[in-house]
């Protein structure tokens, strides 16, 4: 991101970080914030990373599996995924999701 | 927060962190995430803090002033407020806002 304070989402290039997962990525000094649009039925395979991940489903329903425990997330509940926890997920409906990573996802910055 | 992965917003006590600003606060290892409901017309006075603040208006319109520059935020644009920048704001409509602080707001944790 530039040093400016105010930004428009339209200025951020959308990246398909996993098949069907369309992301607007914001990298700050300490976090990557990932605004995701995903259509019903798309899945992210089981994976892990050292970053903590805080996941909020703003619209829709998304089944998240963390360390083999499944939970349907929606606007009423959320997940705080520990460092290196194995996780996967499937969009039960079309979803808008905000994932916050701590620290920055340098792998995403390089996309 | 507890060490568990999955959480419900209903389990988080709502706190009025400024007059008319009703917050659900989530504290992680590196961030405080503040889900705010604010009614039209409420304002937060000019203030500063060492934490960086990333502000996203999920619903509604909120006028944010950072270092004397005003901008109306809505779902299309957002703000990355630097450490110690002076800022204030007013809800132009009823709003749902997500503020992410880096690092943790220990003052909010103590509320």
Radius of gyration of chain A: 14 Å
Number of helices of chain A: 1
What is the oligomeric state here? Answer: homodimer
Count of DSSP E strands of chain A? 11
Q: Which two chains touch over the largest interface?
A: A-B, 34 and 34 residues
Largest β-sheet summary of chain A:
6 strands, antiparallel
Shape of chain A: globular
For the largest sheet of chain A, list the strands in their spatial order: 2-3-4-11-6-9
Q: Structural class of the secondary elements of chain A?
A: mainly beta
- The proportion of strand residues of chain A reads over 45%
Q: For the residues shown, what is the average pLDDT of chain A?
A: 96
Straight-line N-to-C gap of chain A: 14 Å
Q: Would you identify the regions of chain A where 5 or more consecutive residues have pLDDT less than 50?
A: none
Task: Report on the architecture of this protein.
The structure is a homodimer of 111-residue chains. Chain A has 1 helix and 11 strands. By secondary structure, chain A is mainly beta. In chain A, the strands form 2 sheets. The first copy, chain A, has a 6-stranded antiparallel β-sheet with strand order 2-3-4-11-6-9, with no helix packed on it. Chain A has a 4-stranded antiparallel β-sheet with strand order 5-10-7-8, with no helix packed on it. The longest helix of chain A is centred in the last third of the chain and has 4 residues. The first copy, chain A, is globular and about 40 Å long. The mean pLDDT of chain A is 96. At the A-B interface, strand 1, strand 6, strand 8, strand 9 and strand 11 of A face strand 1, strand 6, strand 8, strand 9 and strand 11 of B.
